[in-house]
Amino acid sequence: MNKYLVCFALFLAVICCLSLTEAAPAREELLDWHTAIEKIIAAYERKYPGPSKIYPPEVAHVVDPKNLYLA
User: Fold this and answer.
1) pTM of the model
2) Is position 37 within any domain?
3) How many domains does the chain have?
4) pLDDT of residue 16 exceeding 80
5) 35 neighbors 42 (Cβ within 8 angstroms)
6) Is 59 inside a domain boundary?
7) Helices (H), the chain
């Protein structure tokens, strides 16, 4: 019986802690994901100025394991 009482008390403590965190007002900058993404892009553009390099596509080569000779 005692372990059920302890489990119930722990359950209530967890519920109380979760309700307190939900009741706390959230900062506005945490909720604005668009501004956060814009800041990340701006920081990247400041660090690496200029146009991005575009590389030609690479052709994939298939290796046949039956005819693979490592000399």
Assistant:
1) 0.34
2) yes
3) 1
4) no
5) no
6) no
7) 2-23, 28-31, 33-47
Does residue 62 sit within a domain?
A: no
Question: Residue 48 — φ and ψ, nearest 5°?
Answer: -120, 85
Boundaries of domain holding 36? 2-50
* Residue type, position 67, single letter: N
**What is the spatial distance between Cα 32 and Cα 27, in angstroms, rounded to a whole number?**
9
pLDDT digit string, tens, across residues 21-46:
665 565 655 657 788 888 988 999 89
* pLDDT over 90, % of the chain: 6
Residue for token pair 């956060």:
36
Is residue 21 domain-resident?
yes
